[in-house]
Design a protein that fits this description.
Structural class: alpha+beta
Shape: globular
Radius of gyration: 18 Å
Largest sheet: 5 strands, mixed, barrel
Strand order of the largest sheet: 1-2-3-5-4
Number of helices: 9
Helix content: 40-55%
């Protein structure tokens, strides 16, 4: 499976991004939220991916975070929910909010997602509500999602400064969990400075 793509943003459509990796262009289906968060054309981008294989179709889907990809995989495991409907769900609600709606069994809110009727909304809630919680806490808590987004953005910034991914990972290790992207960057640069 293709776990992630790390390349340049070569283009965007209404529902996908074109990523150039080593001279090969990948078309990656994405949620509206993730598409809106992409950098400028020509800039470096890293996306977590999911390869959907069907008899007549190979489709690659991209996500800004591991949480978003995991939620996508859980959604498409529900019968009657395909990749397009799962992307519509992730376009309608951020992962933390969608999990909250499923956990609170809010059929009406889940039903607002394009392509989802009352039966499908009920099925999603029935099949997923238990699997999205661990020890009574949501796997996709909003703070956790925000923290991982800040961490990913800080790592991306370090990579664009010329540091290797190994150096960036070491520099961000044990960083404060609730820090903003800017604070994480300062923390990492201090650590990298003290090593040099």
């Amino acid at each position: 499976m293709i776990a992630f793509l790390d390349g340049q943003l070569a283009g965007k459509t209404l529902s996908s991004a074109l990523i150039s990796v080593g001279g090969v262009g990948f078309e990656v289906g994405m949620s509206q939220r993730s598409l809106a968060e992409l950098p400028q054309m020509g800039e470096r981008v890293t996306l977590y991916t999911y390869l959907s294989v069907r008899e007549d179709d190979l489709s690659l889907f991209g996500f800004g975070s591991l949480e978003e990809r995991e939620l996508f995989e859980k959604l498409i495991s529900v019968s009657g929910v395909g990749p397009k409907v799962a992307l519509a769900a992730l376009s309608s609600y951020e992962p933390g909010k969608l999990v909250e709606l499923i956990a609170s069994q809010d059929v009406a809110a889940v039903q607002k997602i394009p392509g989802i009727g009352k039966k499908t909304a009920s099925r999603i809630i029935l099949e997923l509500k238990g699997s999205l919680e661990m020890d009574g806490e949501s796997l996709f808590g909003q703070q956790k999602a925000q923290a991982s987004a800040a961490l990913a953005a800080a790592q991306e910034a370090l990579l664009s400064m010329g540091f290797t991914s190994a150096e960036a990972s070491v520099a961000l290790k044990d960083a404060p969990e609730d820090a903003t992207e800017g604070a994480l960057l300062q923390y990492a640069l201090k650590r990298l400075g003290s090593q040099g």
